[in-house]
Design brief:
The structure is a homodimer.
Chain A: E1 3-10, H1 12-15, H2 18-29, E2 34-39, H3 42-51, E3 57-59, E4 62-64, H4 67-91, E5 96-99, E6 107-111, E7 123-128, H5 130-138, E8 142-145, E9 148-150, E10 156-158, H6 161-172, E11 176-183, E12 202-203, H7 205-213, H8 221-233, E13 238-242, H9 245-248, E14 255-257
Parallel strand pairs in A: 1-2, 1-11, 2-8, 5-8, 11-13, 12-14
Antiparallel strand pairs in A: 3-4, 6-7, 9-10, 13-14
Amino acid sequence: MKSKLKIVKIGGNIIEDPQQLGAFLKDFAAIDGMKILVHGGGKSATEMANRLGLKPKMVEGRRVTDIENLDIAVMVYAGLINKNIVTKLQVNSCNAIGFTGADANLILSGKRPVKYVDYGFVGDIVNVNRKTIKLFLDNKMTPVFCAITHDKSGQLLNTNADTIASEIAIAMSDFFEVELNYIFELKGVLENIENKASVISHINTKKYEQLIDDGIISKGMLPKLHNCFRALEKGVQEVKIGDVSLIADANNLHTTLSLK
Amino acid sequence: MKSKLKIVKIGGNIIEDPQQLGAFLKDFAAIDGMKILVHGGGKSATEMANRLGLKPKMVEGRRVTDIENLDIAVMVYAGLINKNIVTKLQVNSCNAIGFTGADANLILSGKRPVKYVDYGFVGDIVNVNRKTIKLFLDNKMTPVFCAITHDKSGQLLNTNADTIASEIAIAMSDFFEVELNYIFELKGVLENIENKASVISHINTKKYEQLIDDGIISKGMLPKLHNCFRALEKGVQEVKIGDVSLIADANNLHTTLSLK
């Protein structure tokens, strides 16, 4: 039987609230057994860009990563946020080790091809170096990934943190029974976006398709759920979506996703 | 017989010159066998502080690291510089992996006690986690350290890169025959500071004391040589000081330091 591995992705809302982040890291450190953390950090990079007098470049409502904004993302994600999370996990007796995809070539990506929009220095994941990640886990380390990868041709690339989490989950399911947790500001996927308590407790493939048909899944939720179902189809055991309280107690209200 | 391990420390002058850095990283990647890179990056952090409108805080001619300047150091050293070095080494088939001392608790330090000057968030090294560094080396990874450590109480600390290099060299000499290389802008320790060709090819303990007595070792060189001789006394096999050409060819003009 495979050992269990828990992968947790947190977003900007937790990272930017020091108190909430501190509480979360304590709960995360207390998770029994092997675990991996993936973090975003969008707003902090935007704030730094503002302080440096750079304007976020938007094309058709989507953020474009030019070279200056890439440098800021690398500084803020891989430097400031990642290392502060690592040192705070170490306080809580969690042997954290912080990574970009460039480190030990852990996540290889390709610059997104230009079709209608040139997204700039944005990477789509090509490969996850599962054996090296397993080596860290086997040696009782807890990898902490930020949302930067590289193309192995010397270029760092900004990469969606949700996708990093699901691609790592898929890769590691070769070795482990993987549970993937997406932690964000809501308690789960909502039936009614106006009612924060209307959490759908379970979504399977059939329900997922039905929710899309009924227009219940909102714009921002679509790529997240796409990542979740891709992960389930590729071997991840279980996916959960919820707020930060889910890590302290898995019985707290949340959405569980599964194929059946 | 112990295996050989080469530790190379580079300073800001190389890091800030993309062409020189590129050439150096190619030479470094080509070093046969196990190796570790340690980098500083002082000027880049100062430039970033200027762009953010912060003034470097100086007390009695020494830089003081307040919390804002620490954040900048973490961003620039652990983020921008470290990850760009790592991805560029990966291009050259060197399996680089970038670290602060917080990662896997690799370098534990203590905040420098306040005597006459409060240096702020500056760390003095307490312990190097030699077993974990050995694990990376045994698995054909090349650690790349920036000048940030932590106190395992949740505080990152700015730490002298020369000292990081010598403390890692000392710790690793338990397992390896260590050669420590300090790469800077000169070809070695100069007999006459006005004449850049007046490199002293060999300095032993006796010569070292004599050079201090004669006032030949200049102010900036004193702590560097102190680090070198401390390393030699604590088990490091050989220490070399030279410019970037030393890595491409060990026969190039440089200063070798040894106890006898």
